[in-house]
Amino acid sequence: MTISLKMRLSLLHLLLLMILLSIFSYGIFTGTRNFLIQNTAVRLRAQAKPVIDRWMNGSIKDSSSLSKEASLLAVDLTSRDTAALVMDKAGVILAKGKRLPSEPVPAPPNPSYFSKSLSGENEITYITKEKDEMFLVTLIPLRKASDPSKVVGIVQLSTSLSPLNGFLNRQKTRLILGILLILTAGALIGFWITYVSLKELTGMVETCNQIAAGNLSKRINLPRRTDEIGQLADAFNNMIKRIEELFETQARFVANAAHELRTPLSALQGSLEVLMRGAQDDPQASRRLTQGMYREITRLTRMCEQLLDLTRITKSTDIHKEKINIKSLFNEFLHYAEIMAEGRKIVINGSSGLVFTGNPDFLKQILFNLTDNAVQHTEQNEMITFTWKQSESGIIFSVSDNGCGISPEDLPHIFEPFYRGDPSRSRRSGGTGLGLAIVKNLVEANGGHIKAESILLKKTVITFSFPST
Ligand SMILES: Nc1ncnc2c1ncn2[C@@H]1O[C@H](COP(=O)(O)OP(=O)(O)O)[C@@H](O)[C@H]1O
Ligand SMILES: [Mg+2]
């Protein structure tokens, strides 16, 4: 059986309340009881003291005069709620104070307390039980007036604790009733508070189940909650939003990939059909068709390679990094860039001492793709510039060209996979639109950022930076 969180919190709260109330009530109860018993003992002694003093300063001088006067002394000390016994040093009862039936029966003497009192202890008080009745007993040594160190006998005063216990029992009943009342109220309030605080959790579980069942557009709606529950709902909503975006990107990616593959495949199919219908007999047509097919297959292969690159980079987590002297890397790259540039002017511009920690193959692939784009969008006599510099946050690279530029509508999308700008501005038709997506992934896999700036018909600058490590 599982107990709900609400119920568990309420029970815990109730249990704590019960423990605290019990400790508190127990403290109050025993405190009151001790105080009342103490008070009774003090009263017994205060009543007896003047009577005993009078007798000890008067006719009781020693043990023998005590035997004679014992009964009068005992009567003197007995009252409506106090019973007195007078004993000699041997513990023999010399006199009992009780004469009238309304006067209480004295408690029997206790030998161990008696001997303590005989040895001179003044403050002996104890509680004893006799036939279901509790007595408070106090023992007072009778000292010679001439020599207080000599004890001639002991007086025992006892009083019944029944009235006091009756009062305490009534008090106990009241306390228990009070505790029950507070517990009931506490339980109700506690349950209400936990219910109000946690009631949204039930709704959240419901929403989560709907999301798990596939409805990613669902959100938890708790606009008025700013506490932890509200924060949890916000964090959850953000997470779902991100997942939804990822799903959408994924779906768009697959749809685009399928679309991109379909075009060359249809072209291939068309060419093959023409060939099969008899064009192979015409050598000229056959050559034209097979050349076209070869181009399509080359494009397909390239696209597959790029798609593989894209997924491989996204997946790679631990990238090999090493210290690279940027100038040397560019010198090496310049050789390839000049071949690609087909007559365009290549300029490199950056300090020679700069070292960058990263993956050299990634950096070369980035430069390669960006150079390819620059070449595709510039005329033969134009210029392509590579720069790098150290900044406060790290190393900034840029590749710029003064070619046809990118239109403001295209600019925000150029890093998306398969996105291609206006084909009329590119020298080469049939790019895959994957080049910049790969570049972006490579830069981000190395911990960097990339951005593009462009003025249409004037220039394009692609800037990417890596934080210093
Ligand atoms: N240097 C540039 N000058 C002008 N347009 C550019 C440049 N680089 C990229 N673009 C635009 O960005 C688009 C995406 O580039 P990319 O992802 O490399 O794909 P592809 O080169 O296969 O078209 C290009 O189609 C082009 O419109
Ligand atoms: Mg490209």
What does this structure look like?
The chain is an alpha+beta fold and 469 residues long. The chain folds into three domains: 5-168, Beta-Lactamase; 216-315, Helix Hairpins (Orthogonal Bundle), CATH 1.10.287; 322-467, Histidine kinase-like ATPase, C-terminal domain (Heat Shock Protein 90, 2-Layer Sandwich), CATH 3.30.565. It is built from nine helices and twelve strands. It has helices at 5-57, 63-77, 111-118, 162-212, 228-276, 283-315, 326-341, 360-376, 435-445, and strands at 83-88, 93-96, 124-130, 133-143, 151-160, 322-325, 345-350, 355-358, 383-390, 394-401, 449-455, 459-467. The strands form three sheets. The protein has a five-stranded antiparallel β-sheet with strand order 2-1-5-4-3, with helices on both faces. A five-stranded mixed β-sheet has the order 7-9-10-12-11, with helices on one face. It has a two-stranded antiparallel ribbon with strand order 6-8. A hairpin with a 3-residue loop joins strand 9 (383-390) and strand 10. Helix 5 runs antiparallel to helix 6 (283-315). The longest helix is centred in the N-terminal third of the chain and has 53 residues, at 5-57. The protein is rod-shaped, with a radius of gyration of 52 Å. The mean pLDDT is 90. Bound molecules: adenosine-5'-diphosphate (ADP) and magnesium ion (MG).
